[in-house]
Amino acid sequence: MTILWKVAAFALSPLLAVSVTANNTPTVRPDGKYEICSEGIRGYFIPYGASISNLFIQDIHGKERDIVLGFDNATTYSSSRLHPHLNGVPGRYANRIKNGTFEIDGVTYHTDLNDNGGLDTLHGGKNGWDYRNWTVVAHTPDSITFSLVDEDGEMGFPGQVVSYVTYTLTPYQWHIRMTAFATTKKTPSTYLTSY
């Protein structure tokens, strides 16, 4: 079963971007951030949560601006369990599951209770996807792809799911593609988004 969950493109007005020059080769910065860029746009990404940590464009005065809310230090994402799901891929199920209980094909599943005073599940539980290190499986000057394997039963969710998130920069645009594959006969409960 292949499920394409979301394809989104965020266009940044050419009026806001003057020129950000792409590097000839993909780079991993000393702080662990992966850099990708294209004309008028440059982004830094980290494996923790498959998160974007910075997105730079130049304003009409030629001043480069980071337009992403987040931590300046990439290690803060993993060291602070209180981060408000900034810029990552929450999952396996984005949003809340009332009482941490749902039913698929007549089977009731109980997920990790981590929200609303321990009454509900938020973004896949306390070990949701935005709290895990993803694997970088591809990295080019203008694109990066992360992958995560979520095992059957993880945080109470059925079926093994292999997910891929690809971030691509084209002139003045940022594109996100999310793909999830169920690798078992169990029907998975998966709902992906990006913050």
TrEMBL record:
One of its GO terms (molecular function) is carbohydrate binding. It comes from the Eukaryota. Gene3D superfamilies: 2.70.98.10. It comes from Hortaea werneckii. This is Aldose 1-epimerase. One of its GO terms (biological process) is galactose catabolic process via UDP-galactose, Leloir pathway. Residues 1-22 form the signal peptide. Keywords: Signal. The keyword Signal applies.
